[in-house]
Amino acid sequence: MHFFNQLLFKKINFPVYIFFFLPHMQIFSQKLNHDNNHFKIELPTPSGKYNIGARNFSAIDASRFDSVLKKKGRDIVFQIWYPSLPKQRKMINYIPEVLIKAMQKDQYNNIDSTEILNWGRLKTHTSENIPLALSKKFPVIFFLHGFGMSRYSYITIIEELVSHGFAVISLESPHSGLMILPDGEVYNTNYDEAPDVKCASMAKDVIFTYDWIKKSNDKKLLPLKNVIDFSQTGVFGHSLGGAAALEVCRIDDRFSACIDLDGDPFGKVEEVGFTKPTLVLLNEPVFTENHFPNPESKKKWQDMGNTRKKMWQDIFLKNESVPAYAFVINGTNHFTFSDFPFVTNKYYQNSRAGIIIDKNKGLKIISKYILDFFSRYILRDNSISINKLTEVFSESTLYLMSDK
Question: What is the DSSP letter of 48?
């Protein structure tokens, strides 16, 4: 098991905040980022032409056993986000009230309780249960959150994708983060299982949800099924969810492509490489020479970066049949791939994060890579070249490639 995952799966007070140290566990101090001085909690306006609707669902996978609760059946909660042309009605809150309370009690990512309380008053750009855009069918992407996180902490990226014509199904994986059941019961993060076990469980959650949606006659779901094109399906995730996305593509041929946002690979993917077109986006903190108090600290930083690259190189070398790309985005850290740049001052207070990229620029780059990659490998738009995005965004650098 990789070193930082040994730390991650121990019970600590800040369950995923340790990822700010990755992939180069910086050990030096620096001044805070300038964005910290003018921080305001806000969600950016999506740039696409579609308005956004969402509907919540829950299901039970009766074929599986919940080892944490010691009961038969695994509870799955998910939200379907879809494009809509009608003018939006009342926008839904960013975080439901019951989840706000759970986050405060959980000391969610070590974020200040008052700041979390303010999330309950923040509005999204999404309306619940508004009519769908019926002009065509839309490709669908499944999304998995990071370990210790909530699916609600990725709305900036999800709204951006939906506004450009993708349906997104965001899942809550039991015991891999904060999860609220329809009756208000809270499932907290469980630290007892190894990350490869949780990764496999999250992948199975996606496959169960896919099957359940296809088979279900739920009246609230039927209109959505009529506009979702399940022949054009992808999956992406952040952190552990990104690793699970790779696993989904490995075990289920119905998924055409996958994206891993800054997550370590686990399980069979490490052994066999990629089986579907794959995009990996990795954080890359930016430092000046002044950040290194001595040559030893710089060498340690470089050694950890070399370890990360070798890990990914080994997987890319196993890849013989499908296109795969890995890019680093300069100025990012692990939580740049979430809502944290927009909703918490804690994001800017980490002394080991380096010089952080502008939050709007970071979102623009990450979203563009996701949109172009899925357009190329799900919608089969051969005019798109993933490599050329480095010409558009100087902050991104090609890390590894296997372009078949």
Answer: S
- So what's the pLDDT on residue 404? 60
269-272 contacts at long range (C-beta below 8 A, 24 or more positions apart): 269/243, 269/315, 270/314, 270/315, 271/318, 272/318
**Can you tell me the distance from the alpha carbon of 89 to that of 125, in angstroms, rounded to the nearest whole number?**
10
What DSSP assignment string belongs to 225-285? HTTEEEEEEEEEEETHHHHHHHHHHHH-TT--EEEEES----THHHHH--SS-EEEEEEE-
Q: Tens digit of pLDDT for each residue in 93-110?
A: 999 999 999 999 999 999
0.70 surpassed by pTM? yes
86 touches 130 (CB < 8 A) = yes
Q: Are 338 and 146 in contact (CB under 8 A)?
A: yes
CB 200 within 8 A of CB 240: no
What does the pLDDT read at residue 16?
35
Q: Phi first, then psi: what are they for 111, rounded to 5°?
A: -90, 140
Look at the chain and count its residues.
404
pLDDT beyond 70 at 352: no
**Distance from chain centroid for Cα 233:** 16
The helix/strand/coil state of 51 is: strand
Q: Which two tokens stand for residue 1?
A: 């098991």
User: Who's near 218: CB < 8 A, 6+ residues apart?
Assistant: 57
63-81 burial: b if 16+ Cβ within 10 Å, else e: ebebeeeeeeebbbbbbbb
What share of the chain has pLDDT > 70, as a percent? 90
Mean pLDDT across the chain: 87
R_g of the chain computed on alpha carbons = 20
Q: How confident is the model over 130-162, as pLDDT tens digits?
A: 888 777 899 999 999 999 999 999 999 999 999
Q: Does residue 151 sit in helix, strand or coil?
A: helix
Task: Say if residue 344's pLDDT is above 90.
Answer: yes
How far from 19 is each of 191, 250, 279, CA to CA, in Å?
Answer: 15, 25, 20
State how far the Cα of 195 lies from the Cα of 357, in Å rounded to an integer: 29
The string of pLDDT tens digits covering residues 264-315 is: 998 889 999 999 999 999 999 888 777 777 878 788 888 888 999 999 999 9
SS3 assignment, position 59: strand
Q: CA neighbours within 13 Å on the CB side: how many for 102?
A: 20
SS3 291: helix
Q: Which residue bears the tokens 């030096």?
A: 28
